[in-house]
Design goal:
Blueprint lengths: L8 E2 L1 E3 L2 E3 L6 E6 L2 E10 L3 H19 L3 H17 L1 H12 L3 H21 L7 E2 L7 E8 L2 E5 L7 H12 L3 E5 L6 H12 L7 E3 L4 H10 L3 E7 L2 H14 L2 E5 L4 E5 L5 H13 L9 E7 H16 L19 H16 L3 E4 L18 E4 L6 H4 L6 E7 L2 H9 L3 E2 L1 E5 L3 H10 L4 E4 L15 E2 L11 H6 E8 L5
Parallel strand pairs: 1-5, 8-9, 8-11, 9-10, 11-12, 13-14, 13-19, 14-17, 16-17, 19-20
Antiparallel strand pairs: 2-3, 4-5, 6-7, 7-22, 15-16, 18-21
The protein binds nicotinamide-adenine-dinucleotide.
């Protein structure tokens, strides 16, 4: 099987076989830094292929749930070693299809290796609980059982890490899977899946179908045989899927958008705050659900801090993400770049104070890709569109405030609650922030982005569905509890 660089055509992976779409139609996975370059070609599938994959997953479910957790763990562990041996090539492909820098592409692939190892370990942990009973002779305990078939729908921005952090626990805990990766960057997920196939995953346990969200993704959520659905993506699509799942009583987990604040108090280590906020806002061109999009700065510091942000952001090197000195790559496609540039223009036209960036970059070969100059706005109205909506691009707004309490109130006054940061040297204020902030992931003196696989990940309010991914929390979603009473025979 080819890895990395050659432009290959991938079918769907269903029941242990590679199959093209029934119509024979395909779509191209293009390099967002150079849209003329086709990285790979994939099957443009529809509901029929989704159904075939669900059937394969349903047929494999009984065998996989009866496979020892130790045997499942061994497959995940072996896959982690296979993927690790390819981390450079796979990371490079990730960069070529998604546009984040090579360092980030390799880093994300390494994360997928780590996730496989973590869940190989989790599969071997003790499970269930033993309880006292009102009857002294009753053996009373719980078991964590797999759900059965799980549908997984993933976005383009973490094309290997998100499939990994959903697929690894789903498999570790005994479920079979149908994955629908995002059409802008499916290749990374296929590299992940290939590692599992080569590690010996039985046919039908993991199936992959590519194609349009509405055609393939919706079918996964509608089908009665799919017991659980894990979705990461936009709030708009997530809201629609939640309704479909609710109507038939399926278990669903949603990880959605963010409008993540970083608060900077006057006593902060300025260089530290500056570095973490610029990284949090601009790495991956701001296309992380946990990206920093609001810098909420104590007024006595805000002018100076805004000047520092402005010069640092203006000096970022935007270009080919494979380039060794590139700091910021393109957005995912022209549509995204045009949308972000239009949002910046409209905020400016509405009177917001744009200090740097925001336009499409077309010089130095960048006209072949979806490049946008990292943008900074000063004096942002927290209730404006710029202060409220996820733009999903390299755009940061500074909001001046008079106190830590006002900062927390402003930070909370959005419909999202994914991640948040505070920069201060004051332990009391840090604890006050941790108590008061409405966010699922809270940082003090580090950036809003960044999550380790051994801890729960997810948001509050409109960012999530009150469930968590990764860490021990992953077991809650991918299993269900069976309570067992065993009594001795009466005679
Ligand atoms: P998206 O909602 O457009 O697509 C996500 C996935 O859903 C894709 O696979 C897509 O094909 C599929 N899809 C689209 N329409 C569908 C439909 N009608 N039915 C079923 N499936 C459908 O999101 P995106 O543009 O790929 O990703 C960006 C968004 O994801 C941002 O809002 C970002 O904040 C969010 N995100 C959240 C997290 C998190 O963990 N909270 C992580 C990464 C990205």
């Amino acid at each position: 099987m080819a890895h990395a660089t050659s432009a290959r055509t991938y079918g769907n992976y269903i029941g242990g076989e590679w199959r093209p779409a029934a119509t024979g139609e395909t779509f191209d996975d293009r390099n967002p830094a150079n849209r003329a370059e086709v990285i790979a070609t994939f099957a443009a599938s529809g509901a029929d292929e989704a159904e075939a994959a669900i059937t394969a997953a349903a047929e494999a479910a009984a065998g996989w749930r009866r496979t020892s957790p130790i045997a499942r763990a061994n497959i995940l562990y072996k896959a982690s070693n296979i993927l690790e041996a390819r981390v450079g090539d796979v990371g490079r492909d990730l960069t070529r299809e998604e546009g984040k820098t090579l360092k980030e592409g390799i880093g994300e692939t390494g994360r997928a290796v780590q996730i496989l190892r973590y869940f190989a370990g989790e599969a071997q942990q003790p499970t269930g609980e033993h309880y006292p009973s009102a009857s002294i002779t009753t053996l009373l305990y719980t078991m964590d059982e797999p759900l059965g078939v799980v549908g997984i729908i993933t976005p383009w921005n973490f094309p290997i890490a998100i499939p990994a952090w959903k697929i690894a626990p789903a498999l570790a805990f005994g479920n079979t899977v149908v994955l629908k990766p995002a059409s802008q960057s499916p290749l990374s997920a296929f590299h992940f899946v290939e590692a599992l196939i080569e590690a010996g995953l039985p046919a039908g346990v993991l199936n992959v179908v590519t194609g349009g969200g509405a055609a393939v993704g919706t079918r996964l959520v509608e089908d009665e045989r799919v017991v659980g659905i894990s979705f990461t993506g936009s709030s708009q699509v997530g809201a629609g899927l939640r309704q479909i799942a609710a109507a038939r009583g399926a278990k669903i987990q949603l990880e959605l958008g963010g409008k993540n604040p970083a608060i900077v108090l006057a006593d902060a280590d300025i260089d530290q705050a500056l570095q973490h906020i610029v990284n949090g806002a601009m790495m991956s061109s701001g296309q992380k659900c946990t990206a920093t999009s609001r810098a909420i700065v104590e007024r006595s510091l805000s002018e100076r801090f805004t000047d520092l942000l402005s010069s640092k952001i203006a000096s970022l090197r935007v270009g080919d993400p494979l380039g060794s000195d590139t700091q910021i790559g393109p957005l995912i496609d022209d549509e995204a770049a045009d949308r972000v540039a239009a949002e910046v223009k409209s905020a400016k036209d509405d009177g917001s104070d744009l200090l740097v960036g925001g336009g499409r970059l077309t010089d130095n070969g960048r006209g072949d890709g979806a490049f946008v100059a990292p943008a900074l706005f000063a004096g942002v109205d927290p209730d404006s569109r710029l202060g409220q909506e996820e733009l999903f691009g390299p755009v940061l707004g500074v909001i001046p405030v008079d106190s830590v309490d006002e900062a927390i109130a402003v930070a909370n006054r959005v419909r999202y609650g994914l991640s948040a940061s505070l920069f201060t040297r004051d332990l009391g204020k840090a604890l006050h922030f941790v108590q008061g902030i409405q966010a699922g992931i809270v940082h003090v003196n580090s950036e809003t982005a960044g999550a380790e696989p051994q801890v729960p990940f997810g948001g509050m309010k409109g960012s999530s569905s009150y469930s968590r991914e990764q860490g021990k929390a992953a077991r809650d979603f991918y299993t269900q509890i069976k309570t067992v009473y065993i009594d001795p025979p009466a005679s």
